[in-house]
Design brief:
about 300 residues; alpha/beta; Arc Repressor Mutant, subunit A; D-Maltodextrin-Binding Protein, domain 2; 3 domains; 12 strands; globular
Length: about 300
Amino acid sequence: MNFDFRLRVFHTVAKRLNFTKAADELFVTQPAITKHIRELEAQLKTKVFDRNGTKIKLTRAGELLLARTEQIFEIYRALEFEINALNNENSGMLRIGASTTVAQYVLPSLLAAFHNRFPEIEVSLVIKNTDQIQLALTEKQIDIGIIEGRSRDPKIHYAPFLNDEIVLVTSARSTIAKNGTITLAELARIPIILREPGSGTLEVIAYALKVKGVSLSDLNKQMQLAGSESIKRYIQNAPCAAFLSIHSILDELSHNQCRVIDIEGFSIERAFHFATLHGQPDGLAELFMNFAVHHKK
């Protein structure tokens, strides 16, 4: 079991190439990440990362281990899902709560696939922002939440689901940052549309800016709107920009309706998380989580 967890730590670090980001994703400390990597290298009798100051890269052994680790995890996921499906009747009501970005742009195809596989399970979906989903979960109004914010409730267990990136977006017709790149100082002068208070996306943006010494109050906030769709329609009709999930603008990018503005030395990455109450998860909730993780592959 220790080896399995070390492989999980290695895989997370290898995908992020950053010990701090891996620690955040796995909800452990950075020293713990370093300790597990050193123990793994001692066990394998070889280095899996080359370290140069704060930068790391995979060694040839690390590249091989990453490829094999992904194969191992895929086998684990398939085995867990198939055994779970075999041992359960797979019927009843599953109440899902999802924050707006996940509900609009990630869940529709997943829910369709889940229904096709388990037609006897009745699914209901509640769409609210992250704070409201966590409250609904603690009040047992839903069985499982899928959220996008950083806030954490001690009564709730969180498990990573899907990686996301939040990008600065403007209309393809906009004259803002025509060369496609700005600095953080220039960001403060651009009219910005933000998500509403309580939004997980807003919380993640605020945290990422704070790390760089910038607060939301430093931005040229033009308006706050609830939901990515409202924001996308707004920026199509006004000379402004907005931070949005990359999942929410794939269609607009493919039709050349919007464009992404890069910010020098700044990026916002996050993970969507499953949220369940501590203790043994509801059987259908656990089935759905296993299916979702297997399906995204």
